[in-house]
Amino acid sequence: MMTRIAFIGFGVVGQGLAEILLEQKDELKENYGFEYSVVAVSDKMKGAIYNENGLDLQKLLDVVKSTGKVDDYTEGTRGWDSLKTITETNANLIVEVSWTDIKTGEPAISHIKAAIKCHKHVVMTNKGPIALAARELLSMAKTNGVEIRFEGTVLSGTPALNLGVYNLASSKITKVAGIVNGTTNYILTEMEKGLSYEEALKQAQELGYAEADPTADVEGFDALGKIVILTNVVMGGMLTKDQVPCQGITNITSQDIQDAKQEGKRWKLIAGAELKGDGSVEAYVRPEKIPLNHPLAAVSGPINALTYTTKYLGDVTIIGPGAGREATGYALLTDILDIHRKAVR
Amino acid sequence: MMTRIAFIGFGVVGQGLAEILLEQKDELKENYGFEYSVVAVSDKMKGAIYNENGLDLQKLLDVVKSTGKVDDYTEGTRGWDSLKTITETNANLIVEVSWTDIKTGEPAISHIKAAIKCHKHVVMTNKGPIALAARELLSMAKTNGVEIRFEGTVLSGTPALNLGVYNLASSKITKVAGIVNGTTNYILTEMEKGLSYEEALKQAQELGYAEADPTADVEGFDALGKIVILTNVVMGGMLTKDQVPCQGITNITSQDIQDAKQEGKRWKLIAGAELKGDGSVEAYVRPEKIPLNHPLAAVSGPINALTYTTKYLGDVTIIGPGAGREATGYALLTDILDIHRKAVR
């Protein structure tokens, strides 16, 4: 069964996935019976190309890398926008990696709904749609007999969501808490080495761990989106972002960092959620002082981690990257592979 | 589709699973469409009972807890040995939790083969069979159209195997290293608090973290079985135990522990495996001094952890319990649930 893929968006993450797909083509076929053809790419800036018989992915990547556009790739139909690409190509799986507004979740939400309505699976990494509309989209997908997957929205390719939803199914998760933002963890780690907050932020920006406008990371908004996803998808909650108290790291001083050291603790930006007695879930994002003997205290630099508290296992923690081209491309691959493995049983 | 379960062995682990199955009966049906009936229990010491219409699991547990045998449970056929129970009952899934010799893997291997040959799925926690014959058994199962599962053999219910085999599929794992034995990790942690090896061992025995004869744990043999499983099942190796150099913790002194502290390190018993250039895998069990900034260094007491080194994600670490009645019972539940989820797609 051939998986025919259309990319909506073809930036860093999309290209990262394309490279992994190319690299793994033979192994995926041999190990999982997974065969694919990329039939379309539609990107607002780079242009669009569609060939129902499949694109030469290496050639396309070369063109995009050297020219910044798909225009020099000529074998196919040009210029189809995202919705036309989703609904009218012969793709059966959409990779939704467009530039999307995290507040509104658009245009990704529209893309996802369009795909679901014409019975196409969707894999994605944008937090916006899932943080805003997880239940609605999952329910729509189920009704339409397709899968939507979004492992990359929390801890990137580190399988934090799959761990909670699949591997820890029925373990009776009562709590989740973690370090889900690499930018702030990097800054806090550097402050422990003696840098001021401003120095650490500047260094993070130089290394690509922080954006030119770092607000979403340092004010905790990125972590907020992720804990809403975890709450609603893993813990059965129904929270919206405005129901979650959110405090970032901008008030933490070098003195605070030193004081914590004296106490045998480390400041971490923690995103957490807890099941209450009445079955509802409460969530939060805030800095916390973590004792050194807690697994989360061992997490330094841009690395992320998540601890699930369960009835049968106590605490289970996963630690790994939370961002990055390859890590996020890999997240999409696991989503695609999971959909394939479900389909072939 | 009703899952009809036969227990081969009904000791601590078997009863742990039975309790979880009882507790979760409604949720398993509601969340996963999973329905079960326990039709038979066959235990060398406790006796055997079979009822094709299903046993009253609560009643059976009460009988076993108060009398140590199944004899007072009368509604059914008595006395069928393990092989007869496997081959002649109407069970379609065998829970193989018998007392088994870790060196020979028997009688578990015979049980597993008998089940596979009559097309019954098997879930298990005994390391012996998988450490000795993973490939053969997996291949037999595939040929016969059934599943064998053994999450509980490594890190108990902490899903270390599922993480490596499923969630990290195609991530290009080149190395695995971890703390896979809780007894020795507990002893080393206590030695760091100032106890001698002998004092720490005695305390471990009192708390149930070490056996009366602790050889298998302290000499590294338990870790050895687990790293062979990891090597062969996750990393495509074909090792036997005698090909793996194995050194336990019996030579570590209080002075060694203190010296490590001075160096900013902790002694840990590490089980590891690495992919070599020629595609073969080398494995080992040995004490190592781990720097404090490595996630494995944060793992204290009887807790276990495993780090997978991958191409696309770098290091991914999972931390959680490595033993225990509930944790191991839960491992079996995840195996059973996975088989069910595969069957219903």
Brief account:
The structure is a homodimer of 345-residue chains. Chain A contains 13 helices and 12 strands.
% residues in beta strands of chain A: 15-25%
> What structural class do the secondary elements of chain A suggest?
alpha/beta
Domain count of chain A: the total is 2
The largest sheet of chain A, given as strand count, sense and whether it forms a barrel, is: 7 strands, mixed
Supply the CATH architecture of the largest domain in chain A: 3-Layer(aba) Sandwich
Question: Rounded to an integer, what's the Rg of chain A over CA atoms?
Answer: 21 Å
Helix fraction bin of chain A: 40-55%
**Mean model confidence by pLDDT of chain A:** 95
Which CATH class of the largest domain in chain A? Alpha Beta
Q: Major sheet of chain A: order of its strands?
A: 4-3-2-1-5-6-7
CATH superfamily of the largest domain in chain A: NAD(P)-binding Rossmann-like Domain
| Order of secondary-structure elements of chain A | EHHEEHEHEHEHEHEHHHHHEEEEH
Name the chain pair whose interface involves the most residues.
A-B, 46 and 45 residues
The beta-strand count of chain A equals 12
Explained architecture:
The structure is a homodimer of 345-residue chains. The first copy, chain A, has 345 residues and is α/β, with parallel strands linked by helices. Chain A folds into two domains: 2-157 and 325-344, 3-Layer(aba) Sandwich (Rossmann fold), CATH 3.40.50; 160-321, Dihydrodipicolinate Reductase, domain 2. Chain A has 13 helices and twelve strands. Chain A has a seven-stranded mixed beta sheet, sandwiched between helices. In chain A, strands 10-9-8-11-12 form a five-stranded antiparallel beta sheet. In chain A, helix 5 links the parallel strand 5 and strand 6 (121-124). Chain A starts with a strand and ends with a helix. The interface between A and B is large, with 46 and 45 residues. Strand 12 of chain A pairs antiparallel with strand 12 of chain B, so a sheet runs across the interface.
